[in-house]
Amino acid sequence: MSTKDLCDNEAKAKLRDLAEDIKFTMMVTALDLKPLNAIPMTTKKVDEQGNIWFLSAADSDHNKHIENDERVQLIYSDPSDMRYLSVYGEAVITKNRKILAELYDKKSDVWFDGLEDPRLTAIQFYPREAYYWEYEKQ
Fold it and tell me: Domain for residue 3, yes or no?
């Protein structure tokens, strides 16, 4: 396993590579509550600034949690290739139609009744601190 201190563009590139490749994460919201509220989420995109995007239902518990406390922890895990990523940051919810149209995919977003579903929202996650571990093949 290896770890490195990464800064700026190198850190954003590593975060993008891992988050987009592993794709599925456990999103932990309401960090002060016990037990922790962790739900599986699909990474839709990592933008040029390193922000991670998800689609979510407006009436979901995690949306309600984010509205009350923007702090979020993401935990990515790929045991088959021994790659792991833990990211702490803040999240905001948007209903911006342009963003939703960019992120929405009818084939993979089975939780919604199309792009016009009034429950459809996007979560923009702003990473503040991240750690990764990966096995370096010899």
Answer: no
Q: Which strands make up the sheet holding 71-78, listed edge to edge? A: 37-42, 24-29, 71-78, 83-94, 120-134, 52-57, 45-46
What would the pLDDT profile of 40-68 be if each residue is shown by its tens digit? 999 999 999 999 999 999 999 999 999 99
Residue 2 is assigned to a structural domain of this protein: no
Specify if 91 maps to a domain: yes
pLDDT tens digits for range 113-125: 999 999 999 999 9
Question: In this structure, are residues 130 and 114 in contact, taking their beta carbons and an 8 Å threshold?
Answer: no
| Greatest Cα pair distance in the chain | 50
The yes-or-no verdict on residue 3 having pLDDT over 60 is no
Domain tally for the chain? 1
Cα 3 from Cα 5, distance rounded (Å):
7
CATH number reported for the structural domain that contains residue 119 in this entry: 2.30.110.10
